[in-house]
């Protein structure tokens, strides 16, 4: 053993140890002092502060009754200054005292640890004992202690449980989770408005605006990501969706000033190795229009992602229905019925059973019902219509129109009436379901049948027109068709007889709309042709927006919302100043 | 003894197996986090349109001087003589007297610009984030004042104590490269 | 007079106007300045540069490497203590203890369960790195890196031994804390580890008074009882314990072999040194076997019981979620059981949502908590049964060695071993004395 071997020192009562001990005591005392000061400061501000502020508030109330009392004013100002100075002083004091406390704690610790080091005992084995016995005994105690801990935890749990729960389960019957049909009719809650009819009952819709001068245009807002879907309106909120290959978003604009209130992100599932989404450039990732039930807004994208947001932008749920096998890209818009979101998910060629119709619960995203459809991919959107007091969900694909009970998905009737790339959605007017076969015909079907009604319930066919994109619009007398090259055709709803055709010589992808007694036709250059509803074409006026438009417009109380290629426009009058 | 040895080998095998499983599990957790990660840190911000100016921002911050301060959007301000954020609802006069000021710490400074406009600026070192001025501005004015988290003061706690106490759940996490939710002027 | 009229109209106007900034229009249009006044810019100070995050991660990695080296190779308590001080100062007072690996459990849980939250990469690294190091080197993170552990380590002056029964019972708390933290993080309700972190208030030098009192009490206890938070409360410690059992290189008291001199029996302030065991004494073996069988049978019973109990607690557990609290408050107000409104219900009513929707959402959340509570209860049942089983088996041990799970790798025990002294002397002898 050399001299430099480390030795474990013996108990040392020397000078070093004394100093260390004293340091520790000094540190502890100072720590105590600073803690006491901090506590005193806290009590001071907690007790004195509110009392002073109450006094100040009382004086301020008094001075409102005696505004000329100079003395009172001076008192108030002095007290206010005192309070403010005091507050700042207390902040500073706390900060400094905290540092000093930290310092004294460090001093104490250094003293304590050095003392410990210098007074360390050398290691000594304890008394000899029967290790085995001791181990058994401690194990017994330990097991009982664990049992005791469990009992304590259980006791705590019981206390929590017995506090009782607020039972709001029964309160859920207070009001439905969705807007009533009457409320829906006043808004524009889906593609082409309530019932997908493209009809608005408002009589105060503007008929004059100019994109170049800004006349009649209330506001214009840039939409961050492009999409061909149409605006959806619920009271003062406008919903749009936009997407590109990397992002899918839902936007909410303020209806009165165009401010983007929120943008919600819809994440997508990663694609499997060999999967690829083949889209037509014209379709894009966001061709489907959103839908709202007055409480939430639902959106679907060409990647098969569906999401629900509440009106404040919080995403409630999100689902992926699988990559749709659709040659042009998925473009079907959503429909809602009571608490359900209805999704027509047609795919492939109809032989492999991939096509389905989903009904998801709007609040949770859970699938309520879904049915297989032996039908190929389509680009029409479903509509819920009321026939003789009952609701029907009418869909159109190649070759059948199929109607289901929207509550449970039970098939009501089907009729073979259209083949090819069916894209114009069906509507219900004049007691008939009107369906279009592209480039071929318009047919009227009576919706009160059961099973296959091809032979029995197709009342008439008109074979002189067949739009390939735009959906028709109709009232009890007339049905209007818009072909994408500009041929506008009017027929009699009851008989199918063609009444007139008028070539507008423009391209159209937006579906025609009927507002009170006028027809609003939006062409791809952004020019709105406004004409009279009647057996003859009579143009009232045209209004140019100055931007390309592919989506159908939305009409609500006194305003039109048009989505251009890059911007959303609000056409209408400024609301009256004052509280909303 | 072979029995002991068997036990030892079994135990060793189990140990090795579990070790490998744990390492694989950690690898999986890392992979998942990397796949769904945010390169940036996330920082806290108040959504100014959800805030109801309850006053919790001043008291719940873990810092004694709250990291939430009042911010002014000058483009939205009306520059009014009778500023309802600066003055109490029934002022004795439209001046800077303590009895007329809404702000308990005197953090709003009022300066004359031109008739009849006054400029209002916030002295952040005095502001305590109580929101009284914001309440007045939103109720009766343009809403150009709002409370917002200041990142030179905020410690960016993993769970913001004010966020927990916020009655309208107005606190959001935003990525650090776009760290501010400001009230901007549209048009 | 004019002033009063103006005030009156403003006041009346204001009474009618909603006091919440849901939609804003210009009541007072922005002025046109004629004097050439320019609108000032709104100042926006940026947050901490994200480069600092990467520096922190690098320092963390280096600290872990250094700790592992010092604990296994250098085996010097002095060097470890120096690293302890550095970790306390850097990860504690400089970084203010946030984000720490303990809290990162919650971030990782949230990433798994909530697809809209993306974890910052530093948080993921902080979570994974100590676990990886523990798999190789044992709890070196606890030994010299974790700031919460370090602050307790430096205040330890006069260690008192905690009897095994108390230790076993208290450690159930740590499992409960972990389970609850994961449950509340997964449901997006709260980060309770951060909320009830006792030491972060010291690192920030300010905080909630309740937390300061809690932290001070823990530190005062920690002067006598070694590292109470680490041993009985730390949820991350639960994970580290299990990983440390599997560590490739365990911390050993002796650098070479144990001579059973018994000098290290009282060396560990944390009670982590295990003595050599003998065979069961005759007569005890059969009882022990029966007891073990009983506990093995009890395992599924405890798991099921725990699951049932946890499931029943869905309502109080769900109350941690702000939506459920809002729903309860709004319901009590609407059914007249509470008078008046508070900020939460006012804020809810300002959003214009229907209360029926809120109740539906709260019910859905409660159902999630029913499942989560059942899992939490089952987990705790499993843990308790596991503890009882562990306390009924006897692991053959021939040497004095640290408990593989409980050893905090502090290095205090090295000096107690004569073999260690031999090693140190051999090192010194290689350097010729002059």
What descriptive keywords fit this protein?
heterotrimer; A: 580 residues; alpha+beta; Methylamine Dehydrogenase, Chain H; five-stranded mixed β-sheet; 24% helix; B: 187 residues; 2 domains; two-stranded antiparallel sheet; 4 helices
Describe the structure.
With 580 residues, chain A is an alpha+beta fold. Chain A folds into 2 domains: 5-118; 181-572, YVTN repeat-like/Quinoprotein amine dehydrogenase (Methylamine Dehydrogenase, Chain H). Chain A is built from 4 helices and 34 strands. In chain A, β8 and β9 form a beta hairpin. In chain A, α1 (15-65) packs antiparallel against α2. The N and C termini of chain A lie far apart (94 Å). With 187 residues, chain B is an alpha+beta fold. Chain B has 2 domains: 1-38; 42-175, no CATH class. Helices cover 28% and strands 19% of the residues of chain B. Chain B has 4 helices and 7 strands, in the order αββαβββαβαβ. Chain B has a two-stranded antiparallel sheet. A two-stranded antiparallel sheet of chain B has the order 3-6. A two-stranded antiparallel ribbon of chain B has the order 4-5. Chain B is elongated and about 100 Å long. Chain C has 2 domains: 7-24 and 52-277 and 403-433, no CATH class; 282-390, no CATH class. In chain C, strands 2-3 form a two-stranded antiparallel ribbon. The longest helix of chain C has 36 residues, at 355-390. Chain C is flat, with a radius of gyration of 29 Å. The chains are: A alpha+beta (580), B alpha+beta (187), C mainly alpha (434). Chains B and C meet through α1, β1, β5 and α3 of B and α1, α4, β1, α5 and α17 of C.
